[in-house]
Amino acid sequence: MTKPASHVQCPVVVLTFTEDQILGDEMADVLRDQLLAIAVQSQARNAILDFQHVKFLSSAGFRPLLSLHRLLRQQNGKLLLCGLSPEVYEIFEVTRLICTKGITRAPFEVFPDVPSAVASLFKPPASDGS
User: What is the pTM of this model?
Assistant: First the structure.
């Protein structure tokens, strides 16, 4: 007897923003609710946010990202960002939400695209020079 399809737990969910601007409290609240709901429903431990369409991100836009980051960290997961335009990259860099020099521990890691972000999740941890 064959089993009916069962739910498969996915270790990573990839979300692509379709808006070119993420700004304002109302949009931030809706975005937070959507991101958290998707993370919980998918049971993903890690999330990749693809910013390829985003040209502007206001400070209110950080709140949903930090909420998702906090949820994933509680599950020993990661939130990775990719596809940042130079303008959006600069916003993250100035606010020190991304690590650009490898010195400080920032909340978000940045990758050029989705495949490189996914690949980073499956790399073995670096050894301590042994």
Answer: 0.83
